[in-house]
Structures are given as C-alpha cells and as structure tokens.
Amino acid sequence: MIHLPSEIRENIAIINGVPFGWGRIESYTYSTLSEQEANSKLNDATNFFRRGLYPGATGYMWLVRKEQDWKDELDQIVKRAPKAHRRTLEQSNEAWLRVIEEQQARSRYEFIVALELRQQQSFLSNLSQLLPIDRNGIERVIGKTPAPLLNKNRVLQQYQRAFAKQVSQLGDVEALEAEEIANFYRQHSYQGLTLPPIGDTLRSLFPWERRDKSFLLPNPIEDEGKRIRIDTPDGPQYVAYIPVALLPDKILAPGFDLMYDIPNLGGNIQGLLHWQQKGYRQSKTMAGRHKKVAKSNRKHVAEVDDPSLIDDDQEIEAELMEAEIVRSKSPMNNLRMIFQVSGDTPTDLDEQCKALIDDLDTKGVTAHHPSADQGEYYDSWLPSTYWGPMGYKIPQLPDRTAAIAMPGALDVVGDPIGPPKGFLMSNGSVFRFHLAWGSQNDQSSHVVITGRIGSGKTTLIYQIVEDAMMTVPARGLIPDLKGDHERWADHPTLKEDVQLVELDGRKVSGVLCPFHLGLDEQEAKEVALDYIEHTLGLDREQRVFGLQNDIMTAIERAVGKGNPSMARVIEELGSEDMREEAREMSQTLRRAQDLPLGRLIFGEVQEESKIRFPKTGLIVLRLRNLKLPKKGESVVRLSQRLSEVIMTGISVLNRQFLLEGKENGTFSFSVLDEFEIYTRTRTGSDQVNEIIRLGRSKFCGALVATQNPSDVPSNIRNNAGYFICLGTSDSEETKLAMKAMEVDLEHSGIYEKLLELGKKQSTKANKGRAVARKDSQAYVKDLANRVGLVKFLIPQAEMREFWKTRPELEEVDENEAQEAEEVGV
C-alpha cells in the first residue's frame, strides 16, 4: 500500500498523518579525498545517523538517478546566447549530444533524504507505525482525529526548524520544493521515462485540499514475480528490487560505501537506505538479550557434547556490541538497504540485476533477488512509517551505517549551466564549465591552467575563450607572444569580432605610454617611474634616491605642462637645468627610444595608434621580437629590459580593459598566457594582483596559463576560482599543484597521476613532436572546491582540426604513432 501525502507545504509533507521533512544533500567529490578527509566525512555521517532521527522514528535516504534532458539543457545555453552565435552553438550542441549518448552520460545522480519529524504523536499516528493502516480509511470508521495542519505558518515553521536541526550534521542540505516532492512520486511511477505535463493541475491542488492525488501515481503496475511491469504511454518498463541480505563482519571504512559505486556500474540503478532508530535504552536491552541467547545456545550445545566455533563467535560479537553501546551510549539503527533496477526489457533487467549482485559479491555483500515481495518493495520505496516487505532488517551501530552509505559521497565537478567540456573520469558524468559563471554569481572568474609544453593548455584556452565569446555578450584581450592566437582572425564564427592589433615599434609609437592608457594621474606617474627605473637597470633594493628624485621632477614637469607622455618626460630629464646625472639618464632613454621596442613605450603618442576597446569582441595583441630572458637568468641587455617593461605595459592595459568592462557592465576577461613573464617588474606584479582581484568581481575574469604551478605566486595560485592542472614535471611542482587544489599532500593517487600526466601529455615525452590527440586529461578544482580528474575533448572534428596548435609537427610515422598510443597519449 502506498500512502500519498495529504498535505505538502514547501519541504514538509504529511504522510498518513506523520510529518516528513525532505531535502537534497549537497554532493561532494569523494575520490580525491585523503584518508584523513574521508575519515572526517565518515565522522560527519556517523553523527548524522546517530542524531538525525529521534528514537522510534523512520528515515529514508535515496541515491536517485535522473534522466537529464541534455537537449533542453543545451538549448538553454543557446537561448541565453547572442543571436549572431546561436546557429553555431546549435551545431556544437548536436555534436555534444552525440558524444553524451555514446558515453551513456545522460543521467545525473543526487541524494534525497526524507526524515520523520518529532511531533506530539496521536493514537492513530502510533498505530500507523505498527500496522499497514491507511489513515483516511480508519477515519471513516472511528471519525476524524487531530492531524497537523501545514496551512498554519507556525506549525510549518516548527517542522522546518526541526528538520534543519536533524540534518545539521550534514552541512548544506537544500530543502526541496513542494513541486519537487510531488515529482519524486511521479518519477517513481515512470522510472526515468518522460513525465507527462500536468499543467495547472499541480498548482490548483495546493494547498492540497483535494482528496484525489491519483495524478501522482497514474500508471498501472503488474507484479510478475521477480519483477514489476509498469505500463506507460511510452511502452512497458520493468523494475526489480535487490535487497541486501547480509553484510560482512568486517567493514573497512572509509572506502566501503555501497552507494558511491552505483553510478560507475553504468546501469539504471538507484539505492535506498531505510532505517528506524532505536534509542540507547532499547539498544542496550536488545544487545543484552542477544548476548543471553548466544550464551544459552552455547551452553545447550555444550550439554550435548557438540561444541561449535560459530556459537563462540556469536557470543563474542554480542558482548562486543553490548560493550560498544554502553561505552558510547549509542543508539541502534535497524537498517534496510534496497537497490532498484530498471530496464526496457526483461532480458536487459536481468543482466543489470546480475551485474549489481556480482559487484556486491566482490565486496562480501550478500544480495537477494526475491520473487515474493517485489510489489511490497515497490510500495515501500516511497516514505511511510510502516515497512511492508518481510526482510531483511540488519541491526547496525551508527558508524557502520555511515560506512555502508555516506550521504553526499558522489563525484561531481563543474558549474551547473556551462557548456560541456568533457567527462569526469571517476563516474563518466558530464563536466561543464563557463568562464563567466563565477562573476555572474558573485564568485571568482579567475582561472589558473598549468601544464607542460604539449599538454594541451593552448587548446583548452581556445575552448574557454570561444565559449565565453559565443554564449554571453563579452569581450576579451589576448596578448599573443608566440603567434598562437593569430588564428582567431580566421575563426568560422567570431572572425568579424576579432581585432588583430600589431604592436610593432617600427609601425606604431607610444602605444603603451602610461599617460594614455586611462590611468589616473598618480597611477600614471608611478608606472612612468617604474618604466624608467627598470629600463635603466635601477634595482628597487639599490635605488639611488638622487636619481629617483631627478626622474620624479621630470615627470612632474611633463604633467604640469599638459598632455604628458613618456617622450616629454625624457625631454624634461635632459633639460639644461637638470643635474648631469639626469641628462645622462635622458641620453640612455633616447637610445632606447630609437629602438623598435622602445618606441612602443617612449615614442611620441600617435592618436591613430591608440588601442580602442570595443563594447564586445576580441582583441589580439601581436607582440613580436621580444627579447625576454629565460626564467632565472639575469637581465643584461637593454633589449631585454625593454621587453620586460613592455610586459608591464601589457599588464597595465589588461587592468584598464577589465576596469572599463566592469564600469560598463560587459563581461570582460584577459588571457595571461606565459604568466610568469608578467610579474618580472614591481609594477607588473602590482597590476597582475589588481587583475586577479578584479577577477573576483562582477563582469570581470582572468585566465592565467603557464607551465609550472611555481610560475604563479602563491596568493594567486591558492585563490584561483578554478585550478586546472594538465600534469606536473617533478615532485615540488606536484606538491604545489596539490596545495592549490587543497587536496591532502599524502594522497598518493593524485600525486602519482599528476606526474604521470606530466610525462604522457608533453612534447618531450613524444620525442619533440606534437602527437594529435582527441582529448587531454587534467585535475580540476571548481568554485565549490570539488576536485576531480576530467577528460577534456572537442567533439567536432572540424574544430579539432582548426585548433591544432602545431600541425606541422604531427607528421609522425606509423611506428612513432604506435609507440605514442602504447604510452597512453
């Protein structure tokens, strides 16, 4: 017998006269937890199963599989996108739908909990817990009895507070809406098939005053022995229930959790943990009774001179259980664990049932596929205070209950609305990411990507930028140091929105002059001072204050005369009334001014050369002939110092680009590839820090990419909204990556995988050649600090070809291709 709710308000439902609170447990990534962190989660779960119910009450926790309508999900992205890009997004979505179907990743899982709430029990409520009595039927015989009325706000709030208190040990539990609870009943009937629309019917039923709730269970069912047949408009659907009959004596926790592995099996399987809590006194009495029975049995066996080790073991276990209950004053959970399997045909259903039973058997768990109680299990899947099927009830202490099913232990990474980017390796779920998601929700849109040469950083940058430009009104600024980003001018869809700005001092002059970058006067003076000091090689620790005063005097004079520029500052520095040291500095700067690199900074400002920021679109700054020293090398030549000053100017330009976007309300982002180069000067570091702070503000984003985690300062690395690591080169870099992802440094699995990816996903590993790959793997930390191993891919073959970063190096012979395949590249 299924008891339908008589009332539902928000997340409280009255079921056969008893209030139940409903919630969705926040999922967390389990596979990347260290042993210590997993033990902490186990402790939280133990506390929940110890205090989540009051003695005598009933709790339900489901691991629910929901068929995701990915076409609708991806259509939502198209609807939010600018009109000019919708057709291209539709084509991309079609490719993703094919891949999602191939990967069988249409479903998502979540934990739902329904807990009986404390109330003043009436006679009828107590009776309904002991017998399969329908309250409505008995009321027709004995008359109306008092029942909770949720239309009184005071009563509703009282139950909501009780529910919040009972789930407080689990952290964040989202209260379900009344419509979600109603759909939970309907989904049970349709088992993942398309739910028929109910239009205004649901809304008209609130506040649930009508007796007819048949719309919750509209389908007839037929008990066919070992399975249930559900007749739906889409055809028959078959369901079977597999209860756990026996658990092993020893459970290694954490790591035993039965529900966590269910998504990995790939079938249409869901789980239910049903428990009734016995209080400390009842538990102690029950354990004492078990011990007496075991002792009596052993004594009787001894009298007939037929001793058995099994009897000794049972007596020892009963004594240990009693001792544990007394020591910790622990309650006892009468536990039932049921798995629900759905299939389109009886054969498909039987195969899935066998796969599940075999998997449980490898864990030492005995599962049973009964043929007598399938109808009762179908009814009891929905919450009630009365349990219909005969067996199996397993008494468990709270810590063992937690080890069997840890609430929320379900690998999930990414944001909820972004375009697909790949799949989570642990369970095959879809990974979604959108650069603007953080800023749209008052979180960070600051992303750090690290990986060795050839690991796929640049291709991933292309994908992220492409999605940002096509899905929201946005603009981006990409300094191009190596010629990797010129291809944006040929992009099939975005080429009309791309500006290629060539920063060549032989053609343009004064482009990076701080007095013409939109800075306020004081900021422009500070940047001008840093430009000159770094060009002259004056270290910040060894400044000659007389020289600094000369520079500041020249800057003040240039500003005072109006329309200042770095060229005017040099003129003022060389004035006759300045000190001889100042005139010597002016001569050095004039020599720098004559060089193509120097003209970008110190040349006369040309109005036609100024960079103008569009409202939306992509600016690619083509920087050529930079003479940047390698990391750790000393700066010796003037061209090297000028190159570093230019990168400081680019940092200033990036910051102003983001500030203007923030003021105008347009999502703006900067791509800082080869990030370490931007932080080689004092002003460059200051500007980058400001960029990252803006990346935590609305309408701003920053995409940082570099080879090693050590290239990124710790304050930026450890505060990244997203951190993506495509592999590491050595032990120290691996530890820095793990710190940035906030995973335990003792987690050997992540440590070894990062090093493995660093070897496989690198040009060096492929003998200096860029082997064509359809995908790449990386560990990802998202905005919720969830970490998982993700396989990134581009489903459209034409876009994979377009985004090849080094096509000329991909001409490998058959032997080399085979060798690359063998090492997993």
TrEMBL record:
Domain of life: Bacteria
SUPFAM superfamilies, A to Z: P-loop containing nucleoside triphosphate hydrolases
Listed Pfam families: AAA_10 (PF12846)
InterPro entries: P-loop_NTPase, T4SS_component
Name of this chain's protein: AAA domain-containing protein
